[in-house]
Design brief:
mainly alpha, Hypothetical Protein Ta1238, Chain: A, 4 helices, about 5% strand
């Protein structure tokens, strides 16, 4: 279990940040931007869950998605280093995780009528929040 006594470190005040490997990179580095986008997507899924608590099956899927997005952020924050072992087993996104997510999407889509046009982001609060999460994930 990770224990965080404070949520700031001040080690990035000069415009750089540390990866999980200890390597320092600029905060505008593509890797940092990518895991920032993943973090934003995770927050959006958390917002969705505030509107789907009455559907335990969907909430369980979304909770797993949040955990796997966290794993993805850890994967992005831990670049592979040729010839330099990390000293620990890095979290990596697996094909099985992708397959399970696609199977969940397929199962949820079975009950829907085929789309005949694009869907505007609206409807219920849950639907609008899901659209927001979808657009962040596309990025």
């Amino acid at each position: 279990m990770v224990v965080l006594n404070r949520i700031y470190t001040r080690t990035g005040d000069a415009g750089d940040t540390g990866l999980a490997t200890g390597e320092r990179v600029k905060k505008f580095d593509g890797r940092v931007a990518a895991y920032g986008d993943v973090d934003e997507a995770n927050a959006c899924v958390g917002l969705v869950r505030q509107h789907t608590a009455d559907d335990p099956a969907l909430d369980a899927i979304l909770a797993r998605v949040q955990n796997e997005l966290f794993d993805l952020g850890a994967d992005l924050a831990t670049p592979e280093r040729e010839g330099k072992p990390l000293g620990w087993e890095a979290l990596r996104v697996t094909a099985a995780q992708v397959d399970r997510l696609e199977a969940d999407i397929d199962r949820l889509n079975e009950a829907l009528s085929p789309l005949t046009s694009f869907v505007l982001p609206a409807g219920t609060a849950a639907a609008a929040a899901l659209h927001l999460a979808r657009t962040v994930c596309r990025r």
